[in-house]
Amino acid sequence: MTDSKYFTTTKKGEIFELKAELNSDKKEKKKEAVKKVIASMTVGKDVSALFPDVVNCMQTDNLELKKLVYLYLMNYAKSQPDMAIMAVNTFVKDCEDPNPLIRALAVRTMGCIRVDKITEYLCEPLRKCLKDEDPYVRKTAAVCVAKLHDINAQLVEDQGFLDTLKDLISDSNPMVVANAVAALSEIAESHPNSNLLDLNPQSINKLLTALNECTEWGQIFILDCLANYAPRDDRESQSICERVTPRLSHANSAVVLSAVKVLMKFMEMLPKDLDYYGTLLKKLAPPLVTLLSAEPELQYVALRNINLIVQKRPEILKHEMKVFFVKYNDPIYVKLEKLDIMIRLASQANIAQVLAELKEYATEVDVDFVRKAVRAIGRCAIKVEQSAERCVSTLLDLIQTKVNYVVQEAIVVIKDIFRKYPNKYESVIATLCENLDSLDEPEARAAMIWIVGEYAERIDNADELLESFLEGFHDESTQVQLQLLTAIVKLFLKKPTETQELVQQVLSLATQDSDNPDLRDRGYIYWRLLSTDPVAAKEVVLAEKPLISEETDLIEPTLLEELICHIGTLASVYHKPPSAFVEGSRGVMHKRLPARTGSGESTESPDVGAAAGGSVPEAAPSVIPSQGDLLGDLLNLDLGPPSSTGPPPSSSGSMGGMDLLGGGLDSLLGGDIGGSPAMGAGFGVAPAVMPASLNAPMGGGLGDLFDLGGGVGMPMGAYVPPKTVWLPAMKAKGLEISGTFARRAGVIQMELTLTNKAMSVMTDFAIQFNRNSFGLAPAGPLQVLSPLNPNQTIEVSLPLSTVGPVMKMEPLNNLQVAVKNNIDVFYFSCQYPISMLFVEDGKMERQVFLATWKDIPNENESQFQIKDCHLNSDAVSNKLGASNIFTIAKRTVDGQDMLYMSIKLSNGIWVLSELRVQAGNPNYTISLKCRAPEVSQCVFQSYEAVLKN
Amino acid sequence: MRSKEAQWSTAEMIHSLFLVNPSGDIFLEKHWKSVISRSVCDYFLEAREKALDPEDVPPVISTPHHYLISIYRDKLFFLSVIQTEVPPLFVIEFLHRVAEMIQDYFGECSETVVKDNMVMVYELLEEMLDNGFPLATESNVLKEMIKPPNILRSVVNTLTGSSNVGDTLPTGQLSTIPWRRVGVKYTNNEAYFDVVEEIDAIIDKSGTTVFAEIQGVVEACVKLSGMPDLTLSFMNPRLLDDVSFHPCVRYKRWESERVLSFIPPDGNFTLMTYHVNAQNLVAIPVYVKHSISFFDSGSGGRLDLTVGPKQTMGKTVEGVMVTVHMPKTILSVNLTATQGSYTYDNGTKLLTWDIGKLNPQKLPNMRGSLSLQTGAPKPEENPSLNIDLKIQQLAISGLKVNRLDMFGEKYKPFKGVKYITKAGKFQVRM
User: Fold this and answer.
1) Is the CB of residue A195 less than 8 Å away from at least one CB of chain B?
2) What's the CA gap between A376 and A391, in Å, rounded?
3) What number is the average pLDDT over the span A830-855?
4) CA–CA separation, B341 vs B354, rounded Å?
5) Which of A152, A236, A268, A510 would suit a FRET pair with A350, their CA atoms being 20 to 30 Å apart?
6) Which parts of B151-281 are beta strand (E)?
7) Please, which residues bridge with residue B195 across strands?
8) Is A185 within 8 Å of B10 when comparing Cβ atoms?
9) Which positions in chain A touch B238 (Cβ < 8 Å)?
10) Do B174 and A363 count as a contact with CB atoms less than 8 A apart?
11) pLDDT of B328-371, one tens digit each?
12) What secondary structure letter does DSSP report for A294?
């Protein structure tokens, strides 16, 4: 009889029947009934209603029945906490059972019942089990500590279980050691700063001994733990490596990869001229190669890690190219990874082989793979200069196959080759041109157009070719349209006589007939350039382009170092720092490879390996993408009414706030929001790209912005700069906008005063921001409820969010705004005080602060002077605190007060500062440290603005 | 200060396991921490939909709150749910153990078998993992905890009401040799070793070897009483490039003397795997002469295949089978084989030619015409050809066992070594 019989019962009355059977007097019937319940559970049916009946079966000598009931309990105790208490007595009793199997089973199950009330009862039995004479019970109890910690961490600490657990590291049984390590690892994950295990040469020695004797899984725990140790010197490092190397021959691939991690990390400390260093390098290759003959899923993870390893130490696998050759029946995810590694390993020595392979792959069935293979040929050309010619001819061969997607892919990469080796392979242009008609993908079309434009002077019929694209101009994607516009302008500059008509045609298509602001802007720029100063136009448009770099997709070195420390983890599969993606990893620390230290140099432990990064997100600096095509983006504003249907901000409340701080106080409050000369330049761009139809000049009046003198100090509260005129009426057909920014109750508000100085009524207001450094965006629509009559003024408060699109601006706090009304669209720029972005939870813990301060490299530190400030250090601290600049510690040295402060920006960037205030000296010195040093200047300006107001 | 910086990376934890059949039905779920709704599998099923082939489903998938790590094996998906940073290899290895355990207990790994033994599978999973930490994954330990089913026992159990669950602590569980229980007793003591080598190779159009390596494995079937301590030595151990051992093998002895010294688990186990990738050592036992051409008119083409022996070390090549993955547009084939028979599956576009034994005097040939779908252009992609073969009594690398010695026990065991060479991923490009 099989278990499928348990599923034959009809749905109706099933629970009822089971209930009766569970309460039967016959043991066998009871057991069968529990089995049926479990069977239902395994397929996801809800049988929680049977809880009391099942628990009643728990007191039994039959171990199988007991186990089954325990299985049930673990699944449902959480949903029936009161009932679960019923089970406690039996657990406590079982923990005293003479049979170690039952003792272990009881302590193990109790830990799985995630009910608060039960945990108190668990403590005593657990304490006994941790000291049980039987190692099987001890090792089970060790895991139970981790479970209990997950439910009630405080309890575990108060009961001293952590110390007991630490003691188990020295247990005589290796399995107990391994489980203790595993449990501590899990607990430590939620306690990044806790001093859970003092890794020192003695404890390391114990771990290394246990490593040889415990199970494969235990070995993984121990190896992962070892990887966190920072050896004192190269000798210790070598001796650990020697004892870890045998693990490379383990049948379990996870053990192998964890061993690779330890070795990759510790070998960093070994001098390169050491014989052992070379030996170790040689030993690493075979196990990595062997991983590739395992199951495809294992291969995939191995390949993702090998990708990191070859970037860090290409020498390990440089002779193993062939094992990465793709087999046609590899799963696609393995194929794509292998291809990546092949390119990384490509060198002059093996390029011929690689190219032959890639060419072979280009005729495979799988389209994605074929495309990537063709791209790979291009990457080889760019990486290995000597092979470029061969690559180009391979690509030409592929183009001859006329397979549509192969041709298109080839043209895209040939464009890159042209950029890397200008004026070298132009002879192939003719062949490329033959395929013009078959290109239907935007990227390929754009690439081809780029080539024609770039080499227009050598292509006799360039004008015809480009003209042929113009016919369907409006059907092309933006990418192609932009490229076509530029290409024709290039052509015009090179052959002005014959192509005047063509360029006019494209300019008018781009500026008059297109709704795409990117395209329009670019069109206007070209138009103006060409009409005002053709020489300048030539310099701009035909400027020499920067060469593209060798390998475009290399992982940035500090990230690579961190990932090497995380070999074998999910982070290594995703190539992202652990902090970036694992939910609930409270305060992941950043790891760095250890520095090389000679044994004689120092006995002090080097500050390596485990630099406590606190919760500072490493990725933060990269949150701000580099300033891209600013011109292109400026007008890419969709001014339709915002689709957000969220509740409008309560206007009465915010209006009240306005009255108090805005409007009438304008003249009283003054502030220097720190305009820099760069501002002017930033604005200089704006008018140039204004659509010609908006011929209102705009640049000039913005100087007003900076003419604000210092003003009267404000009472406590976050610093709010006074309103200034952002958009003068004369530039906006009678609409005058002035405004400021404030942070109120954690929400950033843009506070606007709109005045209608025109003769007609204004309605239909809407607002939109350009992408900006911190992703500021309106959190709701602009609430202008009534039409704005002539000479009427209205105060509006617009709540902002920080989840909008991000682009780095210059200056950083520049914000480009478009406001629309029934008359027109108006553009202006303003700068917001960066202090608006300081969030309320920006107070760092002291420990974290210290660690972070050390961890941020000194080159990220900047120093400023704040002059003429007459506050004592407490007043300073209070005043700054009101603006979310938190004082963490204060120290007085030689009559000089040192204030340590932290700020957290809305995008998660931390700014740490040290402010020195000397009694009687009105000049303060401030040092700022931040992983994204570009914000320092702005932050300093905020300090100054807050302190002086 | 160092202790402050001491930190721990990861906690190895598998939260839940789902078994999913090829049509996307979840037929078993097991949770080790708390219950996670099976709707989490939707992300996986979505990826499954997207993949052309079940083998192409990516093994690691991220969802907003979890990571899904899966393997595809025996036409089933083993899908685990992870909530914290966990080494994916750890999880994948474990999932393979689960599949092996099912195979080991029930003779096959299939949906039917799991459904028929649902409760036992569930009990086993509980034994294998505690709080997401692997607990007992060694077959012999598991079998002492939960006895595998057999017809006789289930009859006895039904009559007597006794149980499948062992009530004493497995003896191997805590000793330093967890893979072996004490008190093993046999009337016939025997130890057999199979040296199995698979050739992985890529041969290009012209017949040149692009890549070749040998994946070797030494499978053991040891049924010896007591605590035997074995030493296995090879005539030519230096052939082996990279080795991975069963945990029972003493690594130090291998390092210093190149012998395998071990106390074996009881029954069947993999003693060692190795590979040989020095190109010159890898003999290619067969060659294929192939030609495939298509008429310019586009209506069809011709195929001509001949298989012959190459470096066979004087042995007979048997079980030869050629599989050609045809271009998509081939509608049907009309071929004549001088030896063996062929089938063509129009759904998968697989042409399979089962040849059998290779006779060097009369080489098997298969030729004939291919017809294309009407109106289809000449196929763009080149087909690839896979070869299966077997050579008895030969390890193609030349590896030879020298001798097997037993210490620790007094009796004289039967000993035997068998060699076999097979094609692994052996492919020829056309």
Assistant:
1) yes
2) 10
3) 84
4) 6
5) A268
6) 190-203, 209-223, 229-234, 242-245, 259-262, 267-276
7) B218, B419
8) yes
9) none
10) no
11) 888 889 999 999 999 999 888 899 999 999 988 999 999 999 98
12) S
Work out the burial of residue A104: count CB atoms within 10 Å of its CB; fewer than 13 is exposed, 13-18 middle, 19 or more buried: buried
Reference A766, options A745, A753, A780, A776; nearest CA is A780
Q: Which of A7, A365, A397 to mutate to test the interface with B (most CBs of B within 10 A)?
A: A365
**pLDDT for the residue numbered A642:** 38
Q: Do A175 and B174 touch (CB under 8 A)?
A: yes
Contact A457, A494 (CB under 8 A): yes
pLDDT at A634 over 50: no
Residue A602 pLDDT exceeds 70: no
Cβ proximity of A756 and A735 under 8 Å? yes
Distance CA B409, CA B403 (A): 17
* Tens-digit pLDDT profile for residues B115-143: 888 888 988 998 898 877 888 888 777 88
The token pair that represents A828 in the structure block: 């202006």
Q: Is the pLDDT of residue A134 over 60?
A: yes
**3-class state of residue A804 by DSSP:** coil
Please give, one letter per residue, the 3-state secondary structure of A122-156. HHHHHHHHHCCCCHHHHHHHHHHHHHHHHHCHHHH
Beta strands in A683-803 (DSSP E): 724-727, 735-744, 747-756, 766-769, 777-778, 793-801
Taking 60 as the threshold, does the pLDDT of residue A628 lie above it?
A: no
Q: Does A289 sit within 8 Å of B277, measured CB to CB?
A: yes
Distance from C-alpha of A91 to C-alpha of A569, rounded to nearest angstrom: 37
Q: Match 């406001």 to its residue by tokens.
A: A819
Confidence category of residue A697, pLDDT binned at 50, 70, 90 = very low
Dihedral angle sign, alpha carbons of residues A186, A189, A191, A193: positive
Beta bridge pairs of residue A796: A752
d(CA B11, CA A189): 7
Give the H or E element holding residue B302.
strand B300-309
Note the pLDDT tens digit of each residue in A730-774: 778 888 888 988 888 788 888 888 888 877 788 888 888 888 888
**What's the average model confidence in pLDDT over A608-623?**
36
For tokens 């390169």, the residue is A272
DSSP state of B18: E
ipTM: 0.84
- Chain B positions touching A75 (Cβ under 8 A) are 31, 35
Cβ–Cβ below 8 Å for A333 and B165: no
Separation CA A255–CA A257 (nearest Å): 6
Interface of B with A in 93-122 (CB under 8 A): 93, 96, 115-122
pLDDT of residue B276: 85
Report field, pTM of the whole predicted structure over 0.90 = no
User: Cα(A416)–Cα(A479) distance, rounded to whole angstroms?
Assistant: 16
Look at residue A593 and tell me whether its pLDDT is greater than 80. no
H/E stretch holding A297 reads: helix A296-312
Is A258 an 8 Å CB contact of chain B? Answer: yes
Angle formed by the axes of helices A367-383 and A404-420, nearest 10°: 20
> Which token pair is B300?
């069809």
**Contact: B7, A252; criterion CB under 8 Å:** no
DSSP letter for each residue of A246-293: GGGGBS-HHHHHHHHHHHHHHGGGS-TTSHHHHHHHHHHHHHHHHHTT
**For the packed helices A517-532 and A534-541, what is the interaxial angle rounded to 10 degrees?**
130
Is the pLDDT reported for residue A18 higher than 60? yes
Tokens representing A201 are 């040469």
Residue B93 Cα, gap to closest chain A Cα (Å): 7
**Residue A80 CB burial class (10 angstroms; 0-12, 13-18, ≥19):** middle
What's the rounded Cα separation, in Å, for the pair A181 and A264? 22
Whether the Cβ atoms of residue B181 and residue B407 lie closer than 8 Å to each other: no
